[in-house]
Design a protein that fits this description.
Elements lengths: L1 E2 L12 E5 L3 H12 L4 E5 L3 H10 L4 E2 L3 H6 L4 E4 L6 H10 L3 E5 L9 H11 L3 E4 L6 H11 L6 E11 H4 L8 H5 L6 H10 L3 E9 L11 E8 L4 E7 L1 E13 L2 E6 L5 E8 L6 E6 L2 H18 L2 E2 L3 H19 L1
Parallel strand pairs: 2-3, 2-5, 3-4, 5-6, 6-7, 8-11
Antiparallel strand pairs: 1-16, 8-12, 9-10, 10-11, 12-13, 13-14, 14-15
Helix pairs in contact: 1-10, 4-5, 9-11
Length: 334
């Protein structure tokens, strides 16, 4: 948890929010914020066509010619939705202008500068939240509740798997930065969830990754990670950018039971729990919408900064998955 400054003299729906980056994720956040009733929305993007696309989709958003112009409008919060390499420098600019920061995952593309950034945010007294939205997914929330209730005992192993066909998701995928330097590691939500459910520090990382499929990108299109934690717990994480149809599953295996979350579809999720001594599984079926977790995430962030309360998914939590990815790069090079 990260605590921001004291309570503001306005409700969270009256906060001024600058959306910096108007690609697909920027358009989604604009739609979500507008739907939540946030009344004062600004947007900027260095690509005029991207900015125009967001404004046409959400006409209530006011356009700014540049990031600097947007900051001059004194936003209470800035959503950093730019390419990963720009997250930290843009977040610093926003905090220097007096704003709290929501930044999309991952925190950065390298650990270089992260320590200094964490100190900078602490000294600025501003809240920084990273968009690890799957922690707000209804299926994950249910699984976390069961774990915290002790339904499966102590967590011993976590298995996370995510795969989707990049060319189907982004027909222009070869022109994206994903294709050049991050690849399947962009799917790090599942790595974050594995670490989050383990609930302890990673002490060892083993990795195999590379461009192994036929989609033709420079960056890894598959990554296999094996993690060892400090106290009798492991995790395996599979990420790929070529699997079809899309599939996502999380298994949390404990000393007295297992929880399985299956949510390959945005509209449907099944959370199952089986415990030692029982021959049957308990299943919870959930109807979901893709924007549900984004709504809950933004509502939490804005209510927290308006009320001066802690935000979830701060820098200290978000850096854990980035540290694993950096270690994965190092281990394969040895």
């Amino acid at each position: 948890m990260v605590r921001g400054t004291g309570p503001m003299n306005k409700s969270w729906q009256d906060l001024r929010v600058l959306i910096a980056g108007c690609g697909s994720i920027g358009r989604r956040h604009a739609e979500v914020l507008h739907g939540l009733g946030v009344r004062d929305l600004l947007a900027c993007d260095p690509a005029p066509e991207q900015l125009a696309g967001l404004i046409s989709g959400t006409p209530s958003v006011a356009a700014c010619a540049s990031f600097e112009e947007g900051l001059e409008r004194r936003p209470d919060a800035v959503y950093i939705l730019s390419p990963t390499r720009l997250h930290i420098p843009m977040a610093k600019q926003a905090m220097q202008a007096g704003a709290h920061v929501f930044m999309e995952k991952p925190l950065s593309d390298t650990m270089e500068g992260v320590d200094e950034f964490e100190r900078f945010a602490d000294e600025a007294g501003k809240a920084v939240m990273v968009g690890l939205c799957f922690r707000f997914h209804a299926g994950i929330v249910q699984a976390k509740k069961w774990v915290e209730q002790g339904r499966i005992g102590r967590v011993v192993s976590v298995r996370a798997m995510m795969g989707e066909h990049f060319p189907d998701i982004r027909p222009d995928y070869k022109s994206t930065y994903y294709a050049k330097y991050s690849g399947a590691f962009e799917l790090m939500h599942d790595l974050d969830l594995a670490i989050w459910f383990a609930g302890q520090s990673v002490k060892q990382v083993h990795a195999v990754y590379g461009s192994f499929s036929d989609i033709g990108i420079e960056a890894p299109d598959v990554a296999e990670l094996l993690l060892a934690f400090e106290d009798r717990c492991t995790a395996t994480v599979h990420l790929d950018f070529f699997q079809a149809p899309r599939r996502r599953q999380l298994e949390i295996i404990g000393t007295s039971g297992t929880i399985i979350v299956q949510f390959g579809s945005w509209e449907h999720c099944i959370v199952s729990c089986g415990t030692r001594g029982s021959d049957s599984w308990e299943h919870v079926q959930l109807d979901t919408d893709r924007n549900d977790m984004f709504r809950d995430e933004s509502r939490h962030f804005l209510q927290a900064i308006a009320g001066g309360s802690p935000v979830q998914c701060g820098i200290s939590g978000a850096r854990k998955s980035l540290e694993v990815i950096q270690e994965a790069y190092l281990t394969q090079k040895k």
